[in-house]
Design goal:
The complex is a heterodimer of chains A (116) and B (114). Chain A is mainly beta and 116 residues long. Helix content of chain A is 0%, strand content 47%. In chain B, the strands form three sheets. In chain B, strands 2, 5, 6, 10, 11 and 12 form a six-stranded mixed β-sheet that branches. A four-stranded antiparallel β-sheet of chain B has the order 3-9-8-7, with no helix packed on it. Chain B has a two-stranded antiparallel ribbon with strand order 1-4. Classes of the chains: A mainly beta (116), B mainly beta (114).
Chain lengths: 116, 114
């Protein structure tokens, strides 16, 4: 059973389009995350979200928005795609952090986005 | 803001050689430290983590790391590498920040020659 899954695995699209990447976790976790890994393999946090709070890395453009239909899903929606958005996007989840402390994160397989 | 540095970008070793990958972070308070591995074409997997207690932590596949608070370091070690250890290794830090977000180092690409 896949703990954290993402779809699609690969996404190729034109500049200016709007696209979504889906993430689902079956671990019963309350907190989910999105990370971006650029062409140099550098990983950067984009969002942390649970049902109480969305925390956004201030460097993330507002064209990116997380959408959570329920506790097990955190989808990443991107408007007006740009060439620089090409990267691998990783979803992750952890137990609820609202009570404080650090929780281990479990990562999905990644979605490779290519913007032409 | 905290930052994480991995000084070795590429490391090439022969099988059975010993490995040490450096990781330094910049944050003066309490930190939680992680090493993740990314095998070719795969997702990130946790190798080991340090939250508190014994600063020498043992992880999976024979890896260990030592937290040296005075040096702001959390170096990863393995006494004898195997070809199957070829992967990208990432050090990550959580400095008790809101949202439990991790700050990653730039990664070290390890290639083990058979």
């Amino acid at each position: 059973d896949t703990a954290v899954s993402q779809t699609p695995k690969y996404l190729v699209t034109q500049m200016g389009n709007d696209k979504s990447i889906k993430c689902e976790q079956n671990l019963g976790h309350d907190t989910m995350y999105w990370y971006k890994q650029d062409s140099k393999k550098f990983l950067k946090i984009m969002f942390s979200y649970n049902n109480k709070e969305l925390i956004i890395n201030e460097t993330v453009p507002n064209r990116f928005s997380p959408k959570s239909p329920d506790k097990a899903h955190l989808n990443l929606h991107i408007n007006s795609l740009e060439l620089g958005d090409s990267a691998v996007y990783f979803c992750a989840s952890s137990q609820d952090v609202a009570a404080g402390g650090t929780k281990q994160q479990f990562f999905g397989p990644g979605t490779r986005l290519t913007v032409l | 803001a905290q930052s994480v540095s991995q000084h070795n970008h590429h490391v090439i070793l022969s099988e059975a050689a010993s490995l040490e990958l450096g990781c330094n972070y910049s944050y003066g308070g309490t930190v939680n430290l992680f090493w993740y591995v990314q095998y070719p074409g795969q997702h990130l997997q946790l190798l080991l983590k340090y939250f508190s207690g014994d600063p020498l932590v043992k992880g999976i596949k024979g890896f260990e790391a030592e937290f040296i608070k005075s040096k702001f370091s959390f170096n990863l070690r393995k006494p004898s590498v195997q070809w199957s250890d070829t992967a990208e290794y990432f050090c990550a830090v959580n400095a008790g920040n809101a949202g439990n977000m991790l700050t990653f180092g730039g990664g070290t690409r390890l290639m083990v020659k058979p």
